[in-house]
Amino acid sequence: MAVETIAPDWEFDRFDDGSQKIHTEVQLKSYSRFLEEYTSQLKGIEEALDDSIGDVWDFTLDPIALKLIPCEQSSLLELIKTDNKVLNKVITVYAALCSEVKKLKYEAETKFYNGLLFYGEGVSESSVVEGESQIQMGRFISFLQELSCFVSRCYEVVVSIVHQLAAVYNSNKVAPKVIETSGVHFQTLYEHLGELLVVLLTLDEIMENHGTLKDHWKMYKRLLKSVHHNPGKFHIPEEKLKPFEKLLLRLEGQLLDGMILQACVEQRFDDPGEGVSVAKNSAFAEEFAFNIRTIFTNLESKIGEPLEIDQRDKYAGVCCLFVLHFHIFRSVDKKLYKALLDVCKKVPAITLSANIIWFPDTFLVAKVPAAAKLMDKKSLQSIRAQRDAYLQQRALTLTKDVQSYYVFVTSWMMKMESIPSKDPKGDKLAEDLSSRCNVFVQGILYAYSISSIIKTTMNMYMSMQRPMTKTSVKALCRLVELLKAVEHTFHRRAMVVADSVSHISQQLQSQALCAINVAKKRVVSDRKYSEQRLDVLSSLVLAENALSGPSTKERRLVVSLALCVGTQLKTFKDEELLPLQLVLKKLDLISELSERVKLQCDCGFLFWHRAVFPIYLDDVYDNAVDAARVHYMFSALRDSVPAMLHAKHMESCDQLLESYDKEIMGVFHEHLLDKLCKEIEKDLRLSVHTHLKLDDRNPFKVGMKDMAHFFTIKPIRFFNRFIDIKAYVTHYLDKTFYNLTTVALHDWATYSEMRNLATQRYGLTMAEAHLPSQTLEQGLDVLEIMRNIHVFVSRFLYNLNNQIFIEKASNNKHLNTINIRHIANSIRTHGTGIMNTTVNFTYQFLRKKFYIFSQFMYDEHIKSRLIKDIRFFKETKDQSDQKYPFERAEKFNRGIRKLGLTPDGQSYLDQFRQLISQIGNAMGYVRMIRSGGLHCCSSAIRFVPDLEDIVNFEELVKEEGLSEETRRAAGVFDSVLKFRSAKNMHLRNFYMIVPPLTVNFVEHSISCKEKLNKKNKSGAAFTDDGFAMGVAYILKLLDQYLEFDSLHWFQAVRDKYKKEMSAVVKEQNVQSASQDEKLLQTMNLTQKRLDVYLQEFELLYFSLSSARIFFRADKTAAEETQEKKDKEEAAKGSSDGAAEASAK
């Protein structure tokens, strides 16, 4: 308000202090700073999305995508508006039919081709269950029903197009003409008709080549027959079966017999009800033939040439149109037929879709037999022979083609990359746009040529079942990479392309408008009036109107149809018409640029040629320098994924995708990742162990392959995972080095060195193992021993005094030992509960061993000898001073040897000794568990059996309510303690076999100790106290210590050896006088031997005595019982005395 009160004249002279200017500058600076920050943030986001994940970003994952296809909401009726109503109607009808054809073609290509092609895929042949084929076909029936409706619709559209054309080109003189048709040729409509016929042809070819589909169909029909015989079993009402069978017969006749196209061309086109004459319409017949010839002439010169774009597809359309013309009018243009066949020499086969290849010569001969008869057989055979020649030629030139296309594509990529992002200024704009247009078109041309070479070559080899050389496979894979490189270049420069496309379209539209405008002026300047001239003028106006807007496919269609009318009466000069046609072609390409690129660079066909993938990976592995190209191949393999989503034969298409993913990843692992891991590991090992000179590492002799290139590759995206080669190899090496270090801790330094080398040479970031370099607590775990107790007692030897187990023999340089500390560690690890379980396990094991023990003692040979010995001892003990004679024991030992030997030279007594040693080892193990438990917990002694009072363990366990397993174990132990029962009377002779067993043991022990000094140490040992433990334990179990002690066996042994030694000493004294050196040597050796034997017997005696103390074997069972009673009475007496004292 204050400002308003100031006088206006003062405003004029107001003092400017410059503060406003400063304020403005500050604001501008802060705004520019904000813009800079925002730009850097956007750049950061772009880089994060662009480069960090992979060189090739998956198109389907683009966070932002640009749709370059022009579109508008106008319908055809709104676009086609001129004052000429009749012309409007004609153009509208034809445009609508062309649009319908495009829609049908799109539906076929996306839905029906893929559904049929992928039928039966994704099911491994080995895992197919009975009836799976029929289930697949059952799921597929609804799809076939849809296909049947689609084919019927195609038939209707073909008839409609033929009728609409026949109505315009009418030879009936009486009937009024719709429009003047002289010089008017609706070539566009014929091309669309050809496209629709090619769709039907493709369906036929897919059915023809689909063996699986046909086999499953037969099996399904058989299933239906069996259902028909017994519908109740399958819960299907009989009245529903008949219609279903009829439907199947109709589907088979319409779709599966390869008659889809044939049925279409054999339709009845003459319909009196419609009032349209077709077959006898000579004007239409002539026009039809003229258009076929025109289209063919346009494509004949370009097909098979470098500038070819869609001529092959049009050629297939021309062949179909020729067949349709033949079937409608029953006339053959022999010259055109021959020309069509001649193209086969240049292009022997055409890929219709994916792996479906079509041979035009076979098709033309089969479908137009009348013309085929006129041809000489030699020329037909030469065309067939041309196929083989083409393949041979292709195999020779493939490598050259790859090289030349490599140069072309890379130079084109450079041109694409060099297009500036900013628009050029002023006068250079038109020139720049036309050069951009040419670069884009050139990219599409290269894509088309490369795609044609790959598809035709691969599919022809497959169709003709010819073997392909590895060189050809590698060359074709290189071409696939180039094809994807073209696509990715377009994608990478999407911003530039998007920016340019609309400008280029406008420039081309203005050029076309100029040309049409010149023609329009020429028509207007001519004063002669006629309906025909009016049609021309209207069509030119229509073309102008259609071009004045976005270049949508509808507008471009209207332009091409309008110009079919507008080019008559020589409105355009020849030098004007050709540039106009070229501009419109460019406009088509530029308007559909992204679609064309996607279509030409689509490598979905590789799904059927995935057998080349292993060879490709081997090539990548061998040539590691350009390993990054593997991104392009994975991008190509991903192209078949969208098509797989249309598979209908499985419960879900995810199953098909999963099997494909699994297969590709399996091959990738086998042929690249695993090979790379092994190679890197081998290289590291050989580099670290160069001092061993394992093999020749001279790169000049054996060559050198730098694997480091693989680790510079960005992660590869495939399905929903990223494959990081560097991370995979790092993980493999980490895992391998860690596992191998745990097995051999002393190798930690070697693996550490290999880790450092991997980091230096390959840039791998390895994880440290953090394992101890050595450990003193190595040893078998209690759990491990418990699970393998039978192996443990046979492979380890027990030392009674040190309480240690030593391994008998080992493949390593050292023997494993187990002592109390190891056991204590295990108990600390697993808890004290493991002690009970271990002892239970051991007693279960003992039960099995005692069964064998009992069998041996029951043997007639053994039992009879023992009874004989007992009787002999009883009869002669007075004469032998109550000692069991040593000779008798030796005789027993030798007698057993006579009964037979095992293949490794062991007698039955040797085996029995080993059995007792194993029983002793088991008891030694129990003792060690006890000691280990005491080490951990002094109260952990409750499981040691109290041999003073043998209670019934099983009953105690039942009372305690313990588990069934514990109850069974207690039962086992009870059975061991029942050895003394009457049932086991044959065991009472055991004490008598102990002397011969000791003799056998001493001989064995001496031979083991002697082997210690020999080079071959197999079987060497210095301790085996398991035998002493076993004998002491069994004597205690059988309560036979008194009987054994009555033999005074060890005293008898001492007496025997002392007697022999004194005899040797006497002999030495006698011989020393005679000075016989050799004899004296022999005497000394004999004395040494006797000394060794006596010493060994003494050692055994001491071990046995120690073991007896362990088992409290100094008393008999009766004495132990008495002692216990005395203790109880003494305790009772002391408690009574205490009670009396307290009462007083």
From TrEMBL:
- Which InterPro entries would you find in this protein's record? WASH-4_N, WASH-7_C, WASH-7_central, WASH7
Q: Which GO terms describe its biological process?
A: endosomal transport; endosome organization
Pfam families, per this entry? WASH-4_N, WASH-7_C, WASH-7_mid
- Bias class Basic and acidic residues marks the residues at 1119-1131
Give the region (Disordered) as residue ranges. 1119-1144
Looking at the record, the residues that make up the WASH complex subunit 7 C-terminal domain are 978-1112
Q: Which domain of life is it from?
A: Eukaryota
Which Gene Ontology cellular component annotation is one that this UniProt entry carries? Answer: WASH complex
Domain WASH complex subunit 4 N-terminal as annotated: residue spans: 33-603
Q: Could you tell me which residue ranges the WASH complex subunit 7 central domain spans?
A: 605-948
Q: What is this protein called?
A: WASH complex subunit 4
Q: Which organism is it from?
A: Oryzias javanicus
